[in-house]
Amino acid sequence: MIDGRGNHPCIVTWILFNESWGQYDTFRLTDWIKQYDPSRLVDSVSGFVDYPAGDIHDRHDYGNPPSAPAQDNRVSIVGEFGAVGHENNGKTFTDEMQGVAALVKASHINGTIYTALSDEEQERDGALLSAERNPQVDPAVIAAGNKAIRDAGAADEAATAH
């Protein structure tokens, strides 16, 4: 995969394992990828069994708001959160975006990845499309949520730059 996709500038990170599926020999394989392609970050495992390997600590968290513990030498991200329509305990997309904006502003989270934005095939919990192809969330609300997260990150960056 690295040979076949390595020339794509949009790839900034290689993810070795997702949710520990087939996870083995994490340190050795992470080191191999980092040596083979030193130009990109390596996320050893996205979610679940994290070893202190690679450049990113990536936690999957469907709480509200999601969280990821701070790391001394690695970026902390919430690599999966969201899923409005699936066991959401009354949460709305707006609730989740406000929670993430507050989390980014008040903590050490370096990034978030909202999952299931348009999933209607398997889990049927997408925010944009339902089985009837009607948005569960107004796209303007998504834009406002993204802006709040960006603004929170910018404010945090400005505060730590002084």
Give a written overview of the molecule.
The chain is an alpha/beta fold and 162 residues long. The chain has 2 domains: 1-54, no CATH class; 59-162, no CATH class. 32% of the residues lie in helices and 19% in strands. The protein has 4 helices and 5 strands. The chain has helices at 2-5, 26-36, 93-106, 139-161, and strands at residues 13-18, 41-46, 56-60, 75-82, 111-115. The strands form 2 sheets. Strands 3-4-5 form a 3-stranded parallel sheet, with helices on one face. A two-stranded parallel sheet has the order 1-2. Helix 3 (93-106) runs parallel beside helix 4 (139-161). The protein is globular. The mean pLDDT is 78.
Quick take:
It contains four helices and five strands, in the order αβαβββαβα. The chain has about 160 residues and is of the alpha/beta class. It is globular.
Kindly name the structural category.
alpha/beta
- Order the strands across the largest sheet as they lie in space: 3-4-5
Q: Which consecutive residue ranges, at least 5 long each, have pLDDT under 50?
A: none
Record field, number of beta strands? 5
Q: Mean of the pLDDT scores?
A: 78
Tally of separate domains: 2
What is the helical fraction, as a range of percent? Answer: 25-40%
Rg calc:
17 Å
User: What fraction of the residues are assigned to beta strands by DSSP?
Assistant: 15-25%
Number of helices: 4
Tell me about the largest β-sheet: 3 strands, parallel
